[in-house]
Design goal:
Largest sheet: 5 strands, mixed
Helix content: 40-55%
Number of strands: 7
Order of helices and strands: HHEEHHHEEEHEHEHH
Low-confidence stretches: none
Strand order of the largest sheet: 5-4-3-6-7
Distance between the termini: 34 Å
Radius of gyration: 24 Å
Number of helices: 9
Mean pLDDT: 82
């Protein structure tokens, strides 16, 4: 799985975040189209204005992410024309790939221009491209820092290493993932952080950041056997217990068991854990 796949899965997990971000960007594109067709920005009073805005109407579009409800601008004097509903399918994957990039390093102007050109919108100024990219970055950042509204009883902490291309080399990069289980049993991905490696200080700053967003009520932290995580949970979650996750627990046991006995041991351990 690539790093973009991880981010896409994360953004899809909470409140259909990826759908909300795609909807936001498509509405931005239609606002740009409306300005071009009107000959003026919204609420701008100039002689060159060709049409007056008349609010917007909801319009549903079917996508790989499900149905999206967009705000289609309206004019008083004429019909508003948009490329969104005609050409979205050919742009969809490029847009979905761009949003994780916004999470990792900020979306590039080149990617925004590529998306606009796929829509068939040409002659977009550098200023407009910059505005669209900045608006998407701000929306993604807003989503990432959304408040954690309910108490989290169980905290599941893990790091996955993936290959990422940097310049001409592929290097190992750590994807730090923290999920939580609420009192009602609902799982919620709380955050993902990209780092060169994991260490105690990095995990501690990550926990503190989540606490500033409202993380509270933690009673049990579950992770692999990495000591840096075990040490880093003591200060932010006073009174909480730590437990090794069952998958890593089984792996640790099997490392010391001959292969011919592993099936038997796994069965016994699973029976004990589930008993």
């Amino acid at each position: 799985m690539s790093i973009n796949d991880f981010i896409q899965d994360y953004l899809s997990d909470k409140d259909e975040g990826l759908k909300a971000l795609v909807t936001f960007f498509l509405n931005l594109v239609m606002q740009y189209e409306a300005e071009q067709q009107a000959g003026a920005k919204r609420y701008q009073r100039i002689e060159s204005r060709k049409s007056s805005r008349n609010g917007s109407k909801p319009r549903v579009i079917k996508t790989k992410l499900g149905e999206l409800t967009l705000d289609k601008p309206e004019f008083r004097e004429k019909s508003f024309e948009t490329v969104i509903f005609k050409k979205y399918s050919r742009v969809e994957q490029a847009l979905i790939n761009t949003i994780p990039e916004s999470y990792i390093q900020g979306v590039s102007g080149r990617k925004v221009r590529h998306i606009m050109e796929k829509f068939g919108v040409t002659g977009v100024s550098a200023e407009t491209v910059s505005h669209l990219g900045k608006a998407l970055d701000e929306k993604v950042n807003e989503f990432l820092k959304r408040p954690i509204e309910q108490p989290i009883i169980y905290l599941i902490v893990d790091a996955v290493y993936v290959k990422v291309r940097r310049n001409s080399r592929y290097v190992n990069t750590a994807v730090l993932i923290i999920a939580g289980i609420r009192e009602d049993g609902y799982r919620e991905i709380l955050g993902i952080r990209i780092a060169d490696s994991e260490n105690e200080a990095l995990w501690l700053s990550f926990f503190d950041e989540l606490k500033s967003w409202g993380l509270r009520g933690v009673q049990l932290v579950i992770s692999d056997g990495y000591e840096g995580i075990q040490k880093s949970v003591k200060t932010p979650f006073i009174g909480a217990s730590w437990q090794m996750c069952q998958v890593h627990f089984l792996r640790a046991i099997l490392r010391n068991i001959p292969k011919k006995r592993q099936s038997e041991v796994i069965s016994l351990v699973k029976s004990a854990l589930n008993g």
